[in-house]
Amino acid sequence: MPPKRQRSAAGPSGEAPVNSLDDGCLMHIFSFLSPIPDRYNTALVCHRWRFLACHPRLWLRVERPIRNTIEPGVYPNLESAVSAARPGDTILIAAGGTHVARNIQIKKPLCIVSFSIHVCYISRVKV
């Protein structure tokens, strides 16, 4: 009896069926993943998935301005990132700098992620 042929996950063109989805559909799927580690690991699959998983629509970044160019999805401080965010967005606070935020009211569900070793929250109370 001849050995059974194993089915491949790839379609007739040799491409996985998920790769036949358009970019908007894949980004919608990626938006349901937890930012760390799932969405981050998704970015490691291929160049297309990296572009989509790191798209500014899915991640807003707070970074110190290194140059004068304006990059979409990058904000100089947490206040501006929170005000630009839509419900369910993820804000990634970059390491390597000091980010001070005071009196921020967040009235929408957001995920704020930082890779810093030390996180310090300072609150001032008026007496």
Give structural notes:
There is one protein chain. The protein has helices at residues 23-30, 35-42, 47-53, 78-84; strands spanning 59-62, 74-75, 90-93, 111-114. The chain has 127 residues and is α/β, with parallel strands linked by helices. The chain has 2 domains: 17-55, Monooxygenase; 59-127, no CATH class.
Keywords:
elongated; alpha/beta; Monooxygenase; Pectin_lyase_fold/virulence; 11% strand; F-box-like_dom_sf; F-box domain-containing protein; four-stranded parallel β-sheet; SHCBP1-like
Distance between the termini: 87 Å
Structural class: alpha/beta
Q: Biggest sheet: strands, sense, closure?
A: 4 strands, parallel
Poorly predicted runs: 117-127
Beta-strand proportion: 5-15%
| Large-scale geometry | elongated
The helix count comes to 4
Rg (C-alpha, Å): 20 Å
Mean pLDDT: 77
- Helix share, percent: 10-25%
Total strands: 4
Query: What topology, given as strand order, has the largest sheet?
Result: 2-1-3-4
Protein name: F-box domain-containing protein
Organism: Oryza glaberrima
InterPro entries: F-box-like_dom_sf, F-box_dom, Pectin_lyase_fold/virulence, SHCBP1-like
GO cellular component, one term: nucleus
